[in-house]
Amino acid sequence: MDKEQRIIDKFSNSFIGDDGAVVGKWVYSKDLFAQDSHFKLGWLSLDEIAYKAMIVNISDAIAMNAVPKYALLGLGLPKKMSEAEISLLHKGFKRACDEFGITIIGGDTISSDKIFISVTIISHLSGKAVYRNSAKTGDLIAYTGKLGESLKGLKSLMRGAQIGKNSRFKKPKLRAKFFYSASKFISSAMDISDGLETDLARLAKASKKGVKFSKKPTKNELKSGEEYEMLFTFSAKNLSRIENEAKKARVKINIFGKITKGRYKNHAKQHHF
Fold it and tell me: What whole-number distance in Å separates Cα of residue 242 and Cα of residue 175?
């Protein structure tokens, strides 16, 4: 078991274990976005840092079939940060909030040696909540879009090259329109934040199921993290409905396996610690 999971297990209760915590019709999710853990200065501009910090948390809300409404911000910022630089951060937060109709309702700030951003998103369920633990034996397994571009961007940055403003590493593309409309046909889901291999194992473990690949994803597809595409399962009888919703939303659907009885073994390297 990885260290992150050991920490989570210390606080285990019925609310913990998904992309967000469901309390009545509300969903609460939190993510941290930290300099030298998730990005290095120079890789992203300050407005891109703030935008991505917000977007990755909005992705969690969508994966739960919840519509984000409010945000709380925790900011650790260097003392030397100028007014103009703070304005750039604000620009990025505002851009993401305007895109998804979110209001920032509070938070806190402290002085820090590095940029540290904590985002809490408060969302309202648009229908039933979609959990990780509801995959059924025989369900088809799929993900949206294309995987691998975020890892490609990261590798470019690590060797000192530049990447475009629309790189998936800088600007994840969320699938809200598709997911909200298709959610009634989806049995389980989560967003792909730590790589398909790791997140598939989490979904399978939560559902106490195994996985049989019909088409094995490539190494880059399995290991590319921070993609924020949707990983989901659904009954084969709903295939035409899922394909129809994907067509309407202009989203590519990749079916690569089936849920089975048993257990799925994850060999992916953990990266948080």
Answer: 13
